Prior knowledge:
Blueprint: H1 3-11, H2 13-16, H3 43-54, H4 83-96, H5 99-112, H6 122-130, H7 141-157, H8 162-180, H9 190-211, H10 219-231, H11 235-248, H12 253-262, H13 273-285, H14 287-301, H15 305-311, H16 317-331, H17 335-348, H18 351-361, H19 372-383
Helix pairs in contact: 3-11, 4-5, 4-6, 7-8, 8-9, 8-10, 9-10, 10-11, 10-12, 11-12, 12-13, 12-14, 13-14, 14-16, 17-18, 18-19
Amino acid sequence: MSASNSTRYWRSYRELRFVLAICVCFSAASCGQSQVPPHNPDTHRLLEIVGEYSHSSKPSADVSPKRRLGQASTSSRNTTQEEGPYQRQIRALFEQGNFNELEKEAQDARHGKARVVGGTWKLFLFYDAVSKPATEDEATEGDWSARFSVLQKWASTYPESPTPSIAIAETYVNYAWAARGADYADTVAERGWKLFGERIELAKSHLVEAARLKTKCPHWYRVMQAIALAEGWTRPQARELFDRAVAFEPDYLQFYREYAYFLFPKWYGNEGDTEQFAEEVAKQVGGQQGDFIYFEIASYLMCSVDLAESHMPDMSWAKIKSGYEAMKQLYGVSDLKGNRFAFMAFVARDKVALKDALTLIGDRRDPRAWNSAEFERAKVWASGQ
């Protein structure tokens, strides 16, 4: 397909009117949310703490100034486990109150830098599993209270471990968004904003406490990025946080995705900022890892229908395909990411790429990528001559 035709098909996305049933963006903020009013936080002091955290001991001896930004460690390439089974394993340990095994899993994920199939760090999935109820959309106050109770008991059992403290902070971030809801800012009730602000403050206090512990964790920065989004930090402040984070752990994929999300126009960026950031990172990191990050940011853009309509045309389909191939070679392809690539190939009207992706995923449609009607439509189109 020519570049002009590819662009034209990208821009025809608005007419396709895909309905994404459930869009999981690996973010504390759900898709479809718009900007929140800034809470005028003491960001200067928080950034001082961020700087102090950056100069503390690293989570692993493998992190050194000599290792290039985004260069994957050897252990991070050993991906044999799927995302779903791993998170179910962690949730089961949490529900059992098996803090000893949870600590072992967290340490292994932190120091070993292991990833699941598709390239996501196990460490991120670990925190995601323990920081919200399994049925988050239907969680009651009792569900949240029970989760905090277990987390507090974990923190009391392991007072020198950063893991439960960071998990509590992230849980408060998720709890804050539960109070705010997923609708646009002008639809949020006053009580929702009040609870949102109070819970973000609690998240900050626990994250600051975790910073005082000797053992450091890269996910600490990711939770601070979620707070930066919630409080409406300025662009320079959010960029400083991102730069500190990747200086601490260049391989942690979530840092790139969180900052890309911060730059969405519905939050604190302008048209084209996320795309420009994707280009910048891909060039700076370079090689397969840079291509992979570009693909991840593109799939993140796909998370929101309104953004996909206006922004996907500005992402390079050729680079997205290169990033997908890099992921296949480095980490394999998970069902979710295979579905997302197939969805983008359908939008780009790249029949060859779509056929290859559908051959890989078979009938394993992931509702986080597309609905059943569009999935069937893509299969019919791909099978045509």
